[in-house]
Amino acid sequence: MRQKVSCNTTINRNLLNEAKSLDIKLSEVFENALSHAVAEKRKERWLSQNSDAITQHNDEIKKSGTFSEMIGQLDD
User: What are phi and psi of 3, to 5 degrees?
Assistant: First the structure.
């Protein structure tokens, strides 16, 4: 089980009151949203760091075809 820590943040009072009245578990919502945001940022960073290699790979595929095409597995 992952260790949990406390976190202070600010939020719109009316939104917080409505969430509480609807029995929404704030820590679950925050953790899920933060997890999603972290994954998106990691994806963006990875794509940015690897964009040159991806472009180079795609150019090579356009020029030479895929491995399956080279060995004739995708012939009609």
Answer: -75, 135
Token look-up 């949990």 returns: 4
65: left (phi over 0), alpha (psi -120 to 50) or beta: left
pLDDT tens column, 48-76: 999 999 999 999 999 988 888 777 766 65
This prediction has a pTM of 0.70
- 3, two tokens: 């260790």
Q: Residue ranges of the domains in the chain? A: 13-70
The letter for the amino acid at 54 is I
**Residue 43 structure tokens:** 């994806």
